[in-house]
Amino acid sequence: MLPKRRRAQVGAPGGPASSEARFPGVAIYLAEPHMGRSRRAFLTRLALSKGFRVLDAYSSEVTHVVMEQTSAEEASHWQEHRAAAASPQRCSRPALLDISWFTESMAAGQPVPVECRHRLEVAAPRKGLPCPARMLPYACQRPTPLTHHNSSLSEALEMLAEAAGFEGSEGRFLSFHRAAAVLKALPSPVTALSQLQGLPHFGEHSRRVVQELLEQGVCEEVERVRLSERYQTMKLFTGIFGVGVKTADRWYREGLRTLDSLQEQPQRLTQQQKAGLQHYRDLSTPVKRPDAEALLQLVKAAVAPVLPGATVTLAGGFRRGKLQGHDVDLLLSHPQEGREAGLLPRVMQCLEKQGLVLYQQHHPGGCGHAEPPPRQSHPMDAFERTFCILGLPQPSGVPVGSTQGPCPTRKAVRVDLVAVPISRLPFALLGWTGSKHFQRELRRFCRKERGLWLNSCGLFDPEQLRRKTYSGTWALSTFPRSREMPEPTHWPLCSAQLQQARPCGLQGEETWASPCPLAPDWEPQLCGVLLPDPGPVGPRSCPPSSPHHPPLPLPVR
C-alpha cells in the first residue's frame, strides 16, 4: 500500500513575518478558482522565495489579488462577495490583477508598477446599489422615479416589448416590460452585467440586450427592429386615434404603409378613425401639462351648471407627475350615489354649444349598484364614458369656457371622460392613474399573493362571490380593519380633499402610495372585500380581520 500523500503546505495564514519580507507594503493573495491548488502552492513558494509576502486567507491586509484565466466581470463579482464577507466596512479595496503582473514581478525580483493592462476591474465600486436578492418581485412594490438612471437601457427593452406586442407575443411583451421596470427602479446606473445578477424578471434575452448596449453602445436586435418596415408601419397605424394592434396588422397585411394610403380608402375607416386621421398632426403631438390643466378647468366649467357639487379629477400620467402625455383622462363623480348617471351627455352638449367638440363617442356604463364584474379586461369597461376630441383654445384672446362660438385657433386633444359612482371612486382613481404596467402588476400581486381580484370597480374576494347567499345586491367597501364604513352620502368628497388625496411620493410609472381618497383619517390601505349589502338598516360595517382574510395593505415600499 502506498503511503498517503501529504497535502502541500502553502504557508502560515499571514505568510512570512514582516521582518523576512523584502516588500512589507505588498501583500499578495492568489485566488484559487481558475488556478488550482497545486499551481497556487507552487506560485506561493516562488513568491516567498523572492521575498514577497503572500497571504493564505483573504483579509483587509491584502493589497494585490492575483487571478489566472479570469475575466474582468468574474473578478469584480468575486471581489464583491469576498470583500463583503471579509470586511464589510473596508473603504479601499485591493487591486484585482491578472497573472501577468505576478510573473513580471517574479522575473524582476520586485513588484513592478501596476499598469492598466494588468488590472481586471471593470468599474469603480458602486455605492447605493441594493442587494440584488432584495429587489422586490412586483413592480407595484418598488418606488420608481420619473427620471431614472437607465433610460437608454429601459427604452431599448420597451421597444422590443412593443414589437413583441405588435406580433401578438404576450409572453415576450411581458418579459421585456418587467425587465425594463426593474431597470427603472435601480438607484444607480448599470455599468456592468454583474449588477443584474439575481434581479427578478431579468432573463437571458434581456441580459444579452443590456450586455450589447454596455459593451458596444448599440444592440443589433434593437436597431434591426427600429429600422424594420413592419415596426415603423405598425407604430404609425397604432398611433391613429381608434386604431388597435389587430386593425393595424390587418392593414399591414393588406399592403397599406402610409397615412395617405388610408385616406384614399375612406370606406374601410370607422368614424373614430376618420377623426383620428383628420386631426393626426395635433393628436400625435404630446399634450403638455398646461394644456391638461386648461382642459380640466374647461370641463369643470361645463359640469358646474349641469350638476352642482360634482367633482372632476385629473387622472392618468399627469396625476403621476408627468409633464406631458398623449391624452387627458378626467373622472367625474358626485358625493351622492347615482347622481352622476347621465351626466356625460349633458356635459358634452354644453361643450358642443361652445364649438369645442370635434368628435365624441359615448359608451354606457355597467358598473353601478349592481354586482360589478369581478374580472374585467380593461378598467374602462365598467363605467359610463365618452371618448372625445376637444378643440382646446390656444392663446388668442379667447378665454377657456367662453361661449363666443368656435375658436379660430385651437389644438385637437384627446380627452376621456369617465363618470364614476362615488362608491367606486377610490378604485377607479387607482386604476385610471396608471401606469398600465403598474396596474397589471398590482392585479397580479392581489391575485397571487392575496387571492383577491382587483379592478377599477373594487377589490373582490372570490370565495365570497362563490358563497353568495343574498339577493344579488352587493356592497363594496374600502375600510381600515374593523372601523365602520360611512355611507356614501357622508363621505367628505370635495375637490380640495381630492387634491390632498393625490399619490404621496408618486414619482412616475410604478409608484402609488396615498391615504384613502375619501377620508383623510383612514389608514392608507386597501383591505376591502365584497360584502353582502344588509339593506338600508344602519351603516355597513367591516368584520374583524381573520387569518383567512387579513387586512390587505397597499403593496408599496
How much helix is in the residues? 25-40%
Radius of gyration (CA) equals 32 Å
Average of per-residue pLDDT values: 77
Total number of beta strands: 15
- Tell me the name of the CATH class of the largest domain: Alpha Beta
How many domains? The number is: 5
Number of helices: 18
Beta-strand residue fraction: 5-15%
The CATH architecture of the largest domain is 2-Layer Sandwich
CATH topology of the largest domain: Beta Polymerase, domain 2
Structural class comes to alpha/beta
Query: Could you give the order of strands across the largest sheet?
Result: 6-8-11-10-9
For CATH, the homologous superfamily of the largest domain is named as Beta Polymerase, domain 2
Largest sheet: 5 strands, mixed
Describe the structure.
Helices cover 34% and strands 12% of the residues. With 557 residues, the protein is an alpha/beta fold. It has a 5-stranded mixed β-sheet with strand order 6-8-11-10-9, sandwiched between helices. α1 (37-49) links the parallel β1 and β2. The longest helix has 18 residues, at 289-306. The chain is elongated and about 95 Å long. It starts with 26 loop residues before the first strand and ends in a 25-residue tail after the last strand. Its EC number is 2.7.7.7. It comes from Nyctereutes procyonoides (Raccoon dog). It holds the Pfam family DNA_pol_lambd_f. Gap-filling polymerase involved in repair of DNA double-strand breaks by non-homologous end joining (NHEJ).
